[in-house]
From TrEMBL:
InterPro entries: YceD. Residues 146-168 are annotated as: Disordered. This is DUF177 domain-containing protein. It comes from Pseudooceanicola marinus.
Length: 191
């Protein structure tokens, strides 16, 4: 038996003719737990508001807006980086996902529509909020002025390849300019 959270709404109890609004503002203990789960230094000002409404005969649509302030370690210096997230969220819950494989198969095909979710007995806005927050976090947060130093790795006795060496056309303009200058020095006659 799966455990449901206090914010989970039983699908069979949702009205089929009107939207069901929700508004989540996690308390300090919930924010701490969510920050730990997402490997954040801090999490503040989290608000997730929206509604769940019927979409067709058996589907349900959750729409909402997530606002949060996150503090992550800089990917270069590990200094704290504060980011404000404002994200519109949409999830469509359906009893049968397209191209759903049998329970015997180990491979699961991911639907092209990223908003699709498998409908269970409950819809939990807090679970959707946590997932949306995780997906909207900056992958490589950088503190102001943080730069990666150039790293050089090579075998002893050989010249290290630099970032500029990986750009084969970077010196093309200089070569063309030098060639034009060589042409200006000639007397104009061809041998």
């Amino acid at each position: 038996m799966t455990e449901t959270s206090a914010t989970a709404l039983r699908v069979s109890a949702l009205p089929k003719t009107a939207p069901t609004p929700f508004s989540l503002t996690p308390e300090a203990a919930e924010l701490t737990g969510l920050a730990e789960m997402l490997d954040l230094k801090a999490l503040r000002k989290v608000v997730f508001k929206g509604e769940i409404r019927p979409a067709g005969k058996r589907d349900w649509l959750l729409t909402g807006h997530l606002g949060a302030t996150v503090v992550q370690p800089c990917s270069v210096t590990l200094a704290p980086v504060t980011t404000r997230i404002e994200e519109d969220v949409t999830r469509r819950f359906t009893p049968h996902l397209p191209d759903e494989t049998s329970a015997e198969s180990e491979e699961v095909e991911m639907p092209e529509d990223e908003t699709l979710e498998k409908l269970g007995s409950h819809i939990d806005p807090a679970a959707v909020m946590a997932e949306a927050l995780a997906l909207s976090l900056p992958l490589y947060p950088r503190a102001d002025g943080a730069e990666m130093d150039q790293q050089e790795f090579t075998e002893p006795g050989k010249t290290a390849m630099t970032d500029e060496d990986t750009k084969p056309l970077a010196g093309l303009a200089d070569l063309l300019a030098a060639r034009r200058n060589d042409g200006d020095d000639s007397d104009g006659s061809k041998s």
